[in-house]
Amino acid sequence: MKSLDLLVRMLLTVLMVGMSPGSSAITEERPNIVFILSDDHAIRAVSAYGDSLIETPNIDRIADAGVRFDRAYVGNAICGPSRATTLTGLHSHANGFYSNEWSPDFDGHQQTMPSLLHKAGYTTAIIGKWHLYSDPVGFDHWEVIDNMFEQGTYYNPSFRSPAGIEDATGYVADLITDKSIKWLETARRSGKPFLLMYNHKTPHRNWMPGPEELKSWDDETRIEEPESLLRDLESTTRGRREARMTIAEYMSNNDVKLSMDRNLNVEQSKLWEAAFDKGNRAYKASRLTGDDDVRWKYQRYIKTYLASVQSMDRQIGRLLDFLEEADLMENTLIVYTTDQGFFLGENGWFDKRWMDEVSSRVPLLIQWRGHIAAGTSTAGLVQNIDYAPTILDAAGVKPEAPMHGVSLLPLVGSAPSEWNRDLYYHFYENPGSHGVPRHYGVRGVRYKLAYYYENDEWELFDLVEDRADQINLYGTPGYEEITADLKQRLQAIRVQYGVPEEDPEVPWYHGPLIRLIEWLLKQL
Ligand code: CA
């Protein structure tokens, strides 16, 4: 009987290994994963990073309980492409989603982190912003905010799921959190480890604060201006001069709350008017022009942006409270990051896209009790290609095909000094909103070199002396060797990642019109 028992055990072990391809952690309890992704959240609006314009006590809880990455970047600072990289661990050219505006819909049938976890026995969900147009693949449960360009609305958003379209009532961050907690209640009882991708819309343009922030709105207090708010871009590159993203010229009345969003209900409209009407009347009476007008618009912009972050931060706190109360913190790896940074008035700009520090650098916080020391930080260069490999490593799941990124667990364990790498960046979305030229570049620890190949313009920045990308050193005497070295490294990293010499074709049939037709069909 003993040998029969042994045989059955051996057979069961073989079967279990067969059921969990690539999993090396069958005998250990695998961690749950909560991946929190916000939208356009600049480092200067996260208090865990210090020198912040705002307090974010709940996001900071993750930093306090884990590690803060001080040099985390994305490889293409625009919403959909960054999300595709998060899912695949691949740069844009390899996952096929390189533009919000004209890439074909994301191919969810390629290898993704959620699909691999799902195959390895995880129960998986994505709730909130998706922005990749195809239906999510690899998720047991998905509910994503929906409208024509998949941005969703701050108030009374629609959600798309396998059940169809739901027109919800309320504020988007609250609704995404309600749905996430509801799903977690079920997932924790499934007997399986879970992956939740908890994806906020906030603080994407048009920066609409939640009801609590409207109730306590203060139109008088002034927020500090960035040094370069009124910068004259005349002496910079053609690309920077021609980009359409200045607060002065491209911020709409809706952006600065001089006109109200149409989709608020009666109660929400009252809160909105009570917050902004008095200030709007004063602005209109004052007839501001020039720099004074930019300054006023900057205040409206930055204050609504920061208030939106606070609305989201409170909801993140609710989700963390739930995990604490449900006794799930011990074995849950929690990530906080965003799809890219954002210009908060630097260069007189809003929006993202550039390889600049403010737009390509992101907050990245990871907690995992018992595995990552609390309250630590690292200066290692990391990128959004690394998220999928890191999560899979924690779950003991090996990718079936190579990813561009690497697991960050060794970096936050013991040997950061051996962490030596460059980062690759490539922005493709021109033609596109804001007219930012295509560019690629390489970033090392100290220097960054970018090539704007449509204009044949180069930029070289010293990130120790000039953290804000203000002084282009390209062509400056004394930088010849540094430039030559970076050009070599740029070529090497393009070869390493297999970047094609020519950009992928912009499909003639694909663009905003097709997006509109596709969206209308989904509403049927
Ligand atoms: Ca974004």
Could you name the CATH topology of the largest domain?
Answer: Alkaline Phosphatase, subunit A
Query: What is the 3D form?
Result: globular
Q: What is the helical fraction, as a range of percent?
A: 25-40%
In CATH, what is the homologous superfamily of the largest domain? Alkaline Phosphatase, subunit A
Per DSSP, what share of the residues sits in E-state strands of 2 or more residues? 15-25%
Specify the biggest β-sheet: 10 strands, mixed
Continuous helix count: 16
Give the N-terminus to C-terminus distance in angstroms: 62 Å
Radius of gyration, Cα only, in angstroms?
A: 23 Å
Each distinct ligand: calcium ion
Description:
It is a single chain. The protein has 524 residues and is an alpha/beta fold. The protein folds into two domains: 26-210 and 299-523, Alkaline Phosphatase, subunit A (3-Layer(aba) Sandwich); 214-227 and 234-298, no CATH class. Helices cover 35% and strands 15% of the residues. The protein has helices at residues 2-19, 57-65, 79-88, 92-95, 113-119, 172-187, 211-215, 238-242, 247-250, 266-286, 290-325, 357-360, 387-395, 409-413, 480-496, 512-522, and strands at residues 32-38, 67-73, 123-128, 141-146, 158-161, 164-167, 194-199, 332-338, 364-367, 376-383, 423-427, 439-443, 447-452, 457-462. Strands 6-5-4-3-7-1-8-9-2-10 form a ten-stranded mixed sheet, sandwiched between helices. Strands 11-12-13-14 form a four-stranded antiparallel sheet, covered by helices on one side. The protein binds calcium ion. Calcium ion binds at residues 39-40, 79, 204, 339-340.
